[in-house]
Amino acid sequence: MGDGMIALDDVTCVHGSRPAIRHLSGRFAPGSLTAIIGPNGAGKTTLLRALAGLHRETRGTISRGARTAFLPQATTLERGFPLTCGEVVAQGGYSASRLFGPTADSERIAHALKTVGLAGSAKRLVGTLSGGQFQRLLFARLILQDAPVMLLDEPFANVDTQTAADLMRLLHQWHQSGRTLIVVLHDIELVAREFPQTLLLARDPVAWGPTAETLSDANRLRARILAAQWDMETDLLMEPHSAAHVAPVRGAPLRDAAIPEAPVQDAPIQDAA
Amino acid sequence: MIHLLIEPFALGFMRRALAGCLAIAIAGPPLGVFLVLRRMSLMSDVLQHGILPGIALGALVGGLSVFAMGIGGVLAGLAVALIAGFLTRATGAREDSQLAGVYLLALAFGVALLSARRGIDLTHLLFGSVLAVDDLALTLMAGVATLVLPVLAVIWRPLVLESFDPDFLRAEAGNGGVIHGVFLTLVVLVVVAGFTALGTLMSVGLMMLPAIAGRHWGETLPAQVIAAVAIAVLSAICGLLLSYHADLPAGPAIVLTAGGFWLVGLLAGPQQSLLRRLAHRAHPA
Fold first, then answer.
1. Partner-chain contact B163 A95, CB within 8 Å
2. How far apart are CA B159 and CA B73, in angstroms?
């Protein structure tokens, strides 16, 4: 199966001109099942792409011991593409195939489709699938990739509860077979229930370790404060003239306490003048 | 009746034009299908206008030889593709107004250059002329088609992947940029190869319209490609006949014919047509 460890040493990822992740060091142990969680804009997807070698503006070192499979957010894919389910699953065998040779034999494809609950759909067009079925299909492609390390970005977004439960069971099976799994998620209850390890990210790493310790009240509060801070930084960067009155209006309760209400009334008059 | 269909092709220049257009009709639509799937229809506009300054420069430097104009067109097409790609990245992926800016400037620049030189019929360059297909032009068209099809076969699998899930290909093989570059080069070659018969402004038409129409006739990717090629071949034959009998430039005649096939498909084709949608509404499955 190879060494499924991923080690990070002082990793910083830049997105455009601003940092999306700052100074992250640590390691995903071989065979670990880790959730990456954090507020919107915390750099979760950026980190996952960096781990897959897909984010260009990455400083520091990421060392990977084994082949890595990456599952993008399903919403980023073109669902109307004229491919059959069998063809999408066969893509999982792409890197192992030769120029004009078959990517995968039909038996493996049929078996993978059956495993995710899409038995007999090999000839079905992708465009006819529901959101949950589409995510199941992408999991079937992961089965064919058969990589020791799997990186999954929001695999349970926009899927029904039955599908989420079925796919979670698959993740546990893969975990038990010794694979290293790193999953970006936003559902904190699901993480607390199902994932032994958690990385809490708010651009700066907040906590990384056993889930119960990582998701302590103190850590969660710190993540929210960091998120509130960068929201204000972004406002100041984007709209230097209006930040003073924009921030309190859109602000979370945290920020309402920090910034007086007064500018809200003043600002429109200044703008008009 | 049969006389009307056969007689024009008794003429040598009509036979050359037919052979050349058939070559483009076989090589172009498969690329067009991918342009449509990759939501790059606007890019084909950029390329068809972008090659004109290169063709004009080729004509200024090398005279009215198809070879000089072809080289100029290919270089200009690649340059415009690079500029468009850079602008798209630098200004955010959905910035299509930048692309419109590029092709409008390129067209104006090309026309200005051509006007500076006497003895060039602008209408022929822009809209094509069956008389312009000499042996060299025919060799260019057939040669490009002969090159494009095997290269497309080689990059087919990664190109499908890159169109459907670019991150997947990059994570698995890391050569997404190369595939994209090779694909765009093939598109430029076909657009330039078609310019003598079809004109620079209509050359993309024989690539794109059958591809758009193909979506209404085929369900899977191979079916769409086969439908697109079939429509393009029919359009080339019918369009050249229309051009001969109605005394129209070849480019618009062929593109109008392809447009007719698209309209039929859009109204009553077996896939995603208005008729299907009406039938579906009347008897929901």
1. no
2. 25
- Which pLDDT band, with edges at 50, 70 and 90, does A236 fall under? low
Q: How many CA atoms lie within 13 A of B234 on its CB side?
A: 16
Structure tokens at B260: 């007719």
**Domain-ending residue, one of A128, A146, A164:** A146
Nearest beta carbon to residue B171 from set A52, A88, A99:
A52
CATH class of B2-282: mainly alpha
For residue A223, give every residue at least 6 positions away whose Cβ sits within 8 Å of its Cβ, in sequence order, or none.
A38, A39, A42, A200, A201, A202, A206
Distance CA B231, CA B228 (A): 5
Spatial separation of the C-alpha atoms in residues B273 and B285, rounded to whole Å = 16
Contact between A139 and A113 under an 8 Å Cβ cutoff? The reply is no
Amino acid, res. A172: H
Q: How many domains does chain A have?
A: 3
Compute the distance between CA of residue A49 and CA of residue A260 in angstroms, rounded to an integer.
39
Q: Which residue range(s) make up the domain with A117?
A: 79-146
Spell out which residues of chain A touch residue B151, defining contact as CB-CB under 8 Å.
Answer: none
What is the per-residue pLDDT across B2-56, written as a single tens digit (0 to 9) for each? 888 888 888 888 999 999 999 999 999 999 999 999 888 888 888 888 999 999 8
Give the helix/strand (H/E) hosting A19: strand A18-28
- B226 lies within 8 A of chain A by CB: no
Q: What CA–CA distance (Å, rounded) separates B144 from B138?
A: 10
- A149: part of which helix (H) or strand (E)? strand A149-153
| CA distance linking residue B235 with residue B250, whole number of Å | 11
Co-location of A49 and A167 in the same domain: yes
Could you give phi then psi for residue A122, rounded to 5 degrees?
A: -55, -35
Domain extents in chain B: 2-282
- Listed by number, the residues of chain A in 125-144 with a beta carbon closer than 8 Å to a beta carbon of chain B are 125
Asked if A259 and A247 touch (Cβ cutoff 8 Å), the reply is yes
Residues of chain B with pLDDT under 70: 91-95, 283-285
Question: Residue A72 falls within a domain, yes or no?
Answer: no
Distance in Å, alpha carbon of A134 to nearest chain B alpha carbon: 13
Enter the DSSP assignment of A125: B
Residue found by looking up tokens 């949950």 in the block: A132
pTM over 0.80: yes
ipTM: 0.84
Interface contact A212, partner B, CB < 8 A: no
